[in-house]
Write a structure and sequence with these properties.
5'-nucleotidase,  domain 2, globular, six-stranded mixed sheet
């Protein structure tokens, strides 16, 4: 075989071996790839991919798994092709997913998650659990989507209020042709209760705190004696934000007996073991990796587990399954046609990062979105009972899901930044309640938190050197939250509102999204307000109208080149 031009000039015999093995094993390398700037880690990863396929997998079961796909629809063709490859070498293959497939790009959000289910059917998934974003379009929509699923869905800790029964089976045993019985337990993060608009999940609840692990233990016990191995599909993650309530996969392993291996999601972590060597694996997000677990059918033991990168140094190194790739391309083409019109340009990069970024500090993207929401309300005639100078904007940083790059800006770009379909809402609060909202929403800053307040019209300071004075757990509509009220306001001060002195006793109109207005994330105080209304204007439309009408179609360096500086943080002294 004549090697292509890009393969010449590589350093060392091992490099050629890697490429030859890759080609021989049908793992496709991009024809334009510049491998000369690969480091040792890239070569080791490529070698791992290639050499894994020199074996006979007869008598083995291979679980391939994904998590937090978030609308990366072309990735399903990679996991499907990898499954075919293992099967061609004699393995029995199961495909599993650990949640958050319904939201993240326009390619899935435009259909409210239905296209993700469609692609998972084509890819051949066998079993999944739910992530918090599966509920973004409401419980009813989720169940409608799953009614079309050709795979099993397990989730033991999401409960119907009226019946006290799980919304889905909590467990499933899959017996392979080789006689291996694999028991799966599905676990959803209780944080979903406040990471999803509470108004969309009023008829269900998520078992939380100690009850979470009582529920999971009962589910494991129900199949432990019937299964050779018990695999947890746990949308829990290892975020510091989840540590305070014990909602991490690390806590799961510590508190529940009888789980042989955990496939994890939620925190977008790439890991093949927990920090203490726990048997936990997670693949990051957006199909950056595919997880692999190899089980010997005869000994009924896990022989190996690792993650395979779909691309290295920016270039794809896995093949795609044609049938799945074609379906993804069809969806992409349709959405691009519907949402692809250019309506503006940007001179700047609007931040899409989580941390440091929208979940840890003021950003230019947060400024733009909040300014647009406030403008959309004032444009319509303002709000009753308060002066325009008492109108402010707040949106949760976790709701900002992507960056806007310099250059052309399309409807799809804005919809990808704001994919949840939220509408602009207005909540009336007192100055003291506004302080509580800011204090509760920065309880762990400078660590990342989804509720971090991006603001407009508020000049405020956060002193992170002071401790959050944790009070009682928030309760809304009779259900406990994942977050806590502050006993006292320790960390946040407000200097001014729209240039006017801040008054703790005054009434302010907060323009926000309907998720926060309903008490989502850390905004319990908004959900308790007895005076609020929903404008029904979608947030993405408000932002597009603002860019068109106020910015004349250009997001300029002068206006949004950097954060405005409304929020000041006092940080601990560097060690």
């Amino acid at each position: 075989m004549d090697l292509p031009e890009y393969e010449r000039g590589l350093i060392g015999m091992n490099s050629k071996k890697i490429l030859s093995l890759a080609l021989a094993s049908t793992l496709a390398l991009s024809a334009g790839a510049a491998f000369a700037d690969w480091g040792e880690a890239e070569y080791e990863a490529a070698a791992k991919i290639c050499t894994e396929f020199g074996e006979d997998y007869t008598g083995k079961t291979v679980i391939l798994h994904s998590n937090d796909v978030h609308g990366q629809v072309d990735g399903y063709a990679y996991i499907a092709a990898l499954g075919d490859k293992f099967e061609s070498l004699g393995a029995e293959v199961l495909l599993a997913d650990v949640g958050d497939f319904s939201q993240g790009t326009t390619y899935v959000s435009a259909s409210k998650g239905a296209t993700a289910v469609e692609l998972m059917n084509v890819a051949g998934y066998d079993i999944i659990t739910l992530g918090n974003h599966e509920f973004d379009f409401g419980y009813s929509q989720l169940m409608e989507n799953l009614s079309e699923a050709e795979f099993k869905t397990v989730c033991c800790n999401v409960i119907v209020d009226e019946t006290g029964e799980p919304i889905l089976p909590g467990t499933e045993i899959i017996e392979t042709a080789g006689g291996l019985k694999l028991g799966f337990v599905g676990i959803e993060t209780p944080e979903t209760a406040t990471k999803v608009n509470p108004g969309l999940i009023t008829s269900i609840h998520f078992t939380a705190f100690d009850e979470l692990y009582t529920t999971v233990q009962a589910a494991v016990d129900s199949i432990r004696d019937k299964a050779d191995l018990v695999i947890a599909l746990a949308h829990l993650g290892v975020d510091e934000e989840s540590k305070q309530n014990g909602y991490r996969s690390l806590d799961l392993v510590a508190k529940v007996n009888g789980i042989d291996f955990t496939l994890d999601g939620h925190s977008h972590t790439v890991m093949t073991a927990g920090e203490g060597g726990e048997k936990i694996q997670s693949t990051g997000t957006k199909f950056a990796y595919v997880g692999v677990v190899i089980i010997d059918n005869a000994t009924k033991t896990i022989e190996d587990n690792y993650v395979m990168p779909t691309k290295l140094n920016g270039y794809y190194v896995m093949a795609q399954k044609a049938e799945v790739a074609a379906k993804a391309a069809e969806i992409i083409q349709t959405v691009d046609w519907l949402y692809g019109d250019v309506f503006a340009t940007s001179e700047v990069l609007l931040t899409g990062d989580k941390a440091p970024g929208n979940r840890t500090m003021e950003t230019n993207n947060g400024d733009l979105i909040c300014d647009a929401m406030v403008w959309s309300v004032l444009r319509a005639g303002g709000v009753m009972n308060v002066d325009d100078t008492q109108v402010v904007g707040i949106t949760n940083g976790g709701g900002i899901r992507a960056a806007i790059k310099p250059g052309d800006v399309t409807m799809k770009d804005i919809n990808t930044v704001l994919p949840f379909g939220n509408t602009v809402a207005v909540v009336y609060v007192t100055g003291n309640e506004l302080l509580e909202a800011l204090e509760a929403s920065t309880f762990c800053t400078p660590d990342s938190v989804g509720g971090y307040p991006q603001t407009s019209g508020i000049k405020w300071t956060l002193d992170t050197t002071k401790a959050f004075d944790q009070g009682d757990v928030y309760v809304l509509n009779g259900k406990e939250s994942s977050y806590y009220a502050p006993k006292t306001i320790q960390r946040v001060t407000i200097e001014s509102i729209n240039g006017q002195p801040f008054d703790p006793e005054a009434t302010y109109a907060v323009v926000t999204n309907n998720f926060c207005a309903a008490g989502g994330d850390t905004y319990n105080v908004f959900g308790r307000s007895e005076n609020s209304f929903d404008t029904s204007l979608p947030m993405d439309e408000a932002v597009m109208d603002y860019i068109t009408d106020v910015l004349n179609g250009v997001i300029t360096e002068a206006a949004y080149g950097a954060p405005r500086g409304d929020a000041t943080q006092i940080l601990p002294a560097a060690e």
